[in-house]
Amino acid sequence: MNYRLEHVAIQCKDLQESVRFYQKLFGGEPTQIRKGSAGYGFCFLKVAGETPLQLMESDGAVGVHHYGFVTDDIEGVAKEFREKGAKILRENRDAAGKLTTIFFQDPNGLQVEVRVPR
């Protein structure tokens, strides 16, 4: 399997303030803020054309929420990771029912996302 780090997601106590902070210090343009399937607002801020930060609203915890990777074979990854003992926390599927994303937890309690490229 091929993997590439796609983003690092950070939970923020104030999303707008965090966008302004990271943009002021690192530059870049944030994407439009939108609501995710889990109900929180988020956006991406790509710094110097590299792996973006995903900034996420949070009423509770702040800090790194998850790391996101992309792969060319999400079905194969899901199968392989299950065989290796990973507990899949969540799967996302498109309108046709095709698997697009899996989330699992690392030994430190951090979530890891693996998905198909956007």
Map the helices and strands.
Elements: E1 3-12, H1 15-26, E2 34-35, E3 41-45, E4 53-57, E5 63-71, H2 74-83, E6 88-93, E7 99-105, E8 111-115
Parallel strand pairs: 1-4, 5-8
Antiparallel strand pairs: 1-5, 2-3, 3-4, 6-7, 7-8
| Cα separation of the termini | 17 Å
CATH-level-4 superfamily name: 2,3-Dihydroxybiphenyl 1,2-Dioxygenase, domain 1
The CATH topology name reads: 2,3-Dihydroxybiphenyl 1,2-Dioxygenase, domain 1
Shape designation: globular
Number of helices: 2
Explain how this protein is built.
Helix content is 19%, strand content 42%. By secondary structure, the protein is of the alpha+beta class. The chain has one domain: 2,3-Dihydroxybiphenyl 1,2-Dioxygenase, domain 1 (Roll). An 8-stranded mixed sheet has the order 2-3-4-1-5-8-7-6, with helices on one face. A hairpin with a 5-residue loop joins strand 6 (88-93) and strand 7 (99-105). The two termini are 17 Å apart. The mean pLDDT is 90.
Please describe the structure with a list of short key phrases separated by commas or semicolons.
2,3-Dihydroxybiphenyl 1,2-Dioxygenase, domain 1, about 120 residues, single chain, alpha+beta, globular, about 40% strand
Give the gist of this structure.
This protein is an alpha+beta fold. It has helices at 15-26, 74-83; strands spanning 3-12, 34-35, 41-45, 53-57, 63-71, 88-93, 99-105, 111-115.
